[in-house]
Each structure stands twice: as structure tokens, then as C-alpha cells.
Amino acid sequence: MILPIVGFGNPILRKVAKDIDKEYPELDKLIEDMFDTMYHASGVGLAAPQIDKSIRLFVIDATPFVENYPEAEGFKQAFINPQIIEESGELWVFQEGCLSVPDIHEDVSRKSIIKVRYFDENFNEKEEYLTGIRARVFQHEYDHLEGKVFVDRLSPLRKTLLKRKLNDISVGKVRTDYRMKIVKK
Ligand code: NI
Predict the structure, then answer these.
(1) Ligand 1: centre distance to CA 99 (Å)
(2) How far is the CA of 8 from the centre of ligand 1 (A)?
(3) Is 141 an active-site residue?
(4) What's the Cα-to-Cα distance from 39 to each of 13, 83, 139, rounded to whole Å?
(5) What pLDDT digit, counting tens, does each position of 56-90 carry?
(6) Residues 151, 60, 14, CA angle at the centre, nearest 5°?
(7) Catalytic residue among 96, 106, 141, 146
(8) Are 46 and 34 in contact (CB under 8 A)?
(9) Using CA of residue 61, residue 65, residue 71, residue 74, what is the dihedral sign?
(10) Is the CATH number 3.10.310.10 carried by domain 5-181?
(11) Which of 99, 112, 140, 145 minimizes the number of CB atoms within 10 Å of its CB?
(12) Do 45 and 133 contact (CB within 8 A), yes or no?
């Protein structure tokens, strides 16, 4: 089932999301719906707050990046209660976008190597290193669970320049090929 995507300005995107356990109701169905919603919107990642659930869960399918970033191959899965244990490596700049922030694509600088811990969709605990585009997509989605959006990471000048566009998104003045959930003020 395809779910509406919450837009920038909705307070749920600013909340720190809560851990879940194995008993979370219909988790398999939720994960499936999140993949469907992400693919429908041509995204490479989707975090639960973006579908109006403040829980620590996101899905990623980075395979559209394979041509330019070979490490994206096979990076397709759900992450439950993820943690970033450490970040290392060089800072690198990559242009990010977000289904909750349509039509805005901006360079963001982040470290290139992360050590992460999470549960997979079967609640098996995993610990691994992610590099390059794998790290990048994980970091972007992880921010959503912490109540952050990628535009928070831009310079004050860039933020000022985007202010009107962001305000338009927050009041629903944006066109997308997917359904969005806007808070009417
Ligand atoms: Ni996003």
C-alpha cells in the first residue's frame, strides 16, 4: 500500500523517534508499505517519520546509484533501531534530496565511513561498516530518526536562500508525482 509522505514543516519530522521491539504490530506489512511508498516516489530511502510514524525504522534501496557508485550494489534492506557508533574517513560533498523536501537538491558534507548497529527485518542484530554512498544514504535516513532534515546541515546563507521554497512546501504549495500529507495552518 502506498502511503502519503509527510512534508517539510510537519512537526513529526522534528521529533526524536522511538525504538520498537519485535511485538510492534504488523511490522512486516509496514516495511512492505514503506518500500512500496519509496519506489512509487522514486526514492532511495524512506524513514518512518516521513510516513507519519515516529519510530526508529527506515528502508533503503540504493541500487539506482550503482552506475556511479559500485558500493550501492545490493544495498537494499530495512533497518530497525539503527545506531551510528562512529563516523570516520574524509568529509565528502554529495548532492542530497529528500521526498519530504521536494524540488530541493543541495550539496551536503558528511564523513565517508560509518560503523553502524541495527536490527534487520527479522530482528537479527547486525554491526558493520558502511562506506561511500551506503554510508551517505544511511546518514540521511538516520537524521530523520533524530528529528533532523538535510537542509539543517546547509550554511546559513543557503538556508536563507531556500527559505521561501521551504515555506511553500510547509503549506503544501508544491507539486509532486506522489501524494503528500500537509499540515494545514
Ligand atoms: Ni529524507
Answers:
(1) 6
(2) 10
(3) yes
(4) 20, 24, 19
(5) 999 999 999 999 999 999 999 999 999 999 999 99
(6) 35
(7) 141
(8) yes
(9) positive
(10) no
(11) 112
(12) no
